[in-house]
């Protein structure tokens, strides 16, 4: 009888230690997937393209997909100004924001309607910079264009910064299907860590103050 009770106690303890966190993590994954696979598009003054890699002045396929989607929304009249974002890595001659702006101009978007903001080197830094630009426009919301796996984290950070996030994920990214699993897992881990220490702290930890 005692051994049975002891086994139950051990199993219950294992459930608390392993099972509960796993369930919470899986629920979060579900939220990230569901949010990223829904388009909340509506009109706004500004749309923001979250940065991704560029190669010697040429947008990567991931960044190109985001920019193409932003251009489409612009042509459809959902926004009148596009902010491209993203800094540069050590040794880069170009910034993601600058490359994004150049690419949008090549698609026929008027240069006067594109703002390149290369302030941030991660999502949090980018969103802080964007929030300041939005305030200068008197805007409290914006359309945020990124990959589906990324949109939920963008939404959470935007909410903390007082920005109303209109999420519109690209559907043409090369990161899809099985290849996207790692990205979804990484997003879930980042969000869980941010619950403990905050997005700002994670950013400082990664890049310094």
Automatic annotation (TrEMBL):
InterPro entries: Cell_Envelope_Assoc, DUF218, Rossmann-like_a/b/a_fold. One of its GO terms (cellular component) is plasma membrane. The keyword Lipoprotein does not apply. CDD domains: YdcF-like. It comes from the Bacteria. Residues 48-189 form the DUF218 domain. Keywords: Membrane, Transmembrane, Transmembrane helix. The chain crosses the membrane at residues 12-33. The keyword Glycoprotein does not apply. PANTHER family: DUF218 DOMAIN-CONTAINING PROTEIN (PTHR30336:SF20), INNER MEMBRANE PROTEIN, PROBABLE PERMEASE (PTHR30336). This is Vancomycin high temperature exclusion protein. It comes from Acidithrix ferrooxidans.
